[in-house]
Amino acid sequence: MKLFKQLLPFGLVLLGFLFRSFVHGHSFLGLICFLLAGVCICNHLLRRLQRSFPIAKLLRLIFNGILLVGILVSFCTLGVILRASLGADNPQETYIVVLGAKVNGTTPSLSLSDRIDAAEAYLNSHPDAIAILSGGQGSDEDISEAECMYQQLTGRGISPERLWIEDKATSTWENLKFSLDLIEEKTGSRPENIGLVSSEYHLFRAGLFAEDCGVTAVGIPARTQWVSLRINYFLREVAGVWHYLILGGQYHD
Question: Which residue, 16, 24, 156, 245, has most beta carbons within 10 Å?
Fold first, then answer.
């Protein structure tokens, strides 16, 4: 057991390096491994110091207390994110905004493929609905995220007239703001509610951005196919939510 405790931080660092360097899409799990290794090392050092410096015992208690509070807050936040990830029971929105994700050249990434699948399913089951496909073009993308979604959906038989392209947005906040502007431009009015298609882990935070834009978002989840990716993104989303809450209106990502 003693040897295991001694080797645990090194194992976590190695695992973190593997996640961040060799397993695509799992970088946040790698960061968590590094953080856990740091916690183990700090606890080990404080435990050794307290033999000579009594104050080290108090510092260790404070350190572990802060750590415990952080874990509890993270679990509560994760619970809220998980609940939102279920989406609405029976969404019936006329306008849905499909949030973009990474495009590899002209091919949708796994996350974008999941969102395209969810948009297709909704449009097929709601023949009067219109989808606003939102997402700009990154420096390492050959086409915009919106154009990629458009090509995929029209290729699957969705009528082009039901697909409106918004290809300027570079963040979630811009996705929503620019999409609402486009709806208003085309219809003369701004909706109070919209359907929001995004990866299930992202729906809670995206809903907060929708509130910033003055609308209520009805979640339409795109299920992440890989379980390990789902774990990585849900954990990352906890940090994302608190980043948003702390920075407030200054945080437009």
Answer: 16
